[in-house]
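Trying the structure run again after the queue cleared.
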Amino acid sequence: MTDNTWLSRWDERYSSEEFAYGTEPNNYLREQLSQLTPGKILFPAEGEGRNAVFAATKGWQVSAFDISANGKSKALQLAEHQQTTIDYQVGELSTLNYQKEQFDAIVLIYAHFPGAIKSSIHQMLNQYLRKGGFIIFEAFSKNHLEYIAKNEKVGGPKDIESLFSIEEIKADFPDYNIIELEETEIELSEGLFHNGTGSVIRFVGQKLM
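Done. C-alpha cells:
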C-alpha cells in the first residue's frame, strides 16, 4: 500500500501551476530514445509527464502511471499543449492492468520508490517488457547524499534506501544484455527541483529472456 505521506508529498509537489521538473525531457532519455524504433513504451512514476509527452511526440505509443492525480492532470495538460496523447493511469503498479510483454521499452527516470518496495517494483515491471525490449534508467546513486549536503537544490531522496547502486540494478534486472551501466556525475537543470551537480546511475539494458 502507498504510504499516505508519500502520496501527499507528490500531490503537493505537483499542485502548483509551474512544472516541478520543467516541461523539457530528461537529456539521457532524449539521447537514448533517439536510438530506438518507436513502439509501445511505459513510464512508471511519471509525475507531470515531461518524458512521456516527449516520447509521444516522437511517435511512441505511450502508457504512464503515477500515484499522484495532480501529476496526471499536469501531464495531460502538457500533452494537449504539445498536440499529442498519452494513456496515463493513477495508482500503484500492482493495481494497474498492464499485460505481460506488452511493452517494447520501459523508462525509469528518477523513479525513486521507497526502499522497501523498489526492487519488487523493478521485478514486476520486468514481466511487462517483451523479450528484446529495452530498459532506460537514470536515477540518483547512493553517493548522491554527499551532493545534497553541498547543495539541496540538486534534489533527490535523502534516505539512502531510496537511492541506487550498480549492484542493485544488476540484481533487479539479471536477464539483460547490459548496453550501458555506470555511476557518473552530471549537471542537472530540470525545473525547480533538479539544479546542480549530482551523482546518478545510468542504465540501458536489453531483455534477453
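The mean pLDDT is 93. Worth checking whether this holds up in the mutant runs.
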